[in-house]
């Protein structure tokens, strides 16, 4: 199945992502009215995309500009209907949300990672906020294809105003979303989320 189920996609689209931080609100909570259909909900125009790839689960993610080279684990929905985040471990890894399209398929493929992992220190996405438009992100797929994306936008947003429509909403080309925490520390984590938007620009078999 190439597209997420309506239930899983709806749950994700209405749940604020708090990767590596505090507890999630329950899915189904109302999204802020300002995010739906607002100009701010549309990522900056990016490079022309290429033909969508066949469905294949992502197994590794590389972001050369910030030194990321991580295996990818699969993330689903937590019992309360919110999006899972990777476990807090010494050997931190990013995770692909399995109810989003696989990287290279039409739609927004979503990858989450921690900025910090408690007593273990920095997380795999500790430098995500340093990415700039034009930086490259490569997803290695289980079938051996490497899907290369180019960053089109990066935002830091308050968790109370997470732009669910921009992150999870339908798009007509293969895109990628990378998400972590950011902004000032609070009593239970971080105040903001960092979101990177990228579009597929090439693919190859190494």
From TrEMBL:
Residues 28-51 are annotated as: Disordered. It holds the Pfam family Sortase. It comes from the Bacteria. PROSITE patterns: PROKAR_LIPOPROTEIN, TAT. InterPro entries: Sortase, Sortase_dom-sf, Sortase_F, TAT_signal. One of its GO terms (molecular function) is hydrolase activity. Residues 28-43 have a biased composition (Low complexity). The keyword Hydrolase applies. Keywords: Hydrolase. This is Class F sortase. It comes from Streptomyces mangrovisoli.
């Amino acid at each position: 199945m190439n597209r997420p189920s309506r239930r899983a996609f709806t749950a994700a689209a209405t749940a604020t992502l708090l990767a590596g931080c505090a507890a999630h609100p329950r899915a189904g909570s109302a999204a802020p009215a300002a995010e739906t259909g607002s100009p701010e909900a549309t990522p900056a125009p990016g490079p022309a995309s290429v033909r969508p790839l066949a469905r294949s689960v992502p197994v590794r993610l590389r972001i050369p500009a910030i030194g990321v080279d991580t295996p990818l684990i699969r993330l689903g929905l937590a019992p309360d209907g919110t999006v899972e985040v990777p476990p807090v471990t010494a050997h931190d890894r990013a995770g692909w949300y399995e109810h989003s399209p696989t990287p290279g398929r039409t739609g927004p493929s979503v990858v989450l990672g921690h900025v910090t992992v408690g007593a273990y220190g920095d997380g795999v996405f500790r430098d995500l906020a340093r990415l700039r438009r034009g930086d490259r992100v490569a997803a290695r797929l289980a079938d051996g294809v490497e899907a290369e994306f180019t960053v089109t936008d990066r935002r830091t947003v308050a968790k109370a105003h997470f732009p669910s429509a921009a992150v999870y909403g339908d798009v007509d080309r293969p895109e990628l979303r990378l998400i972590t925490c950011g902004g000032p520390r609070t009593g239970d984590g971080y105040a903001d989320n960092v979101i990177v938007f990228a579009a597929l620009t090439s693919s190859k078999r190494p």
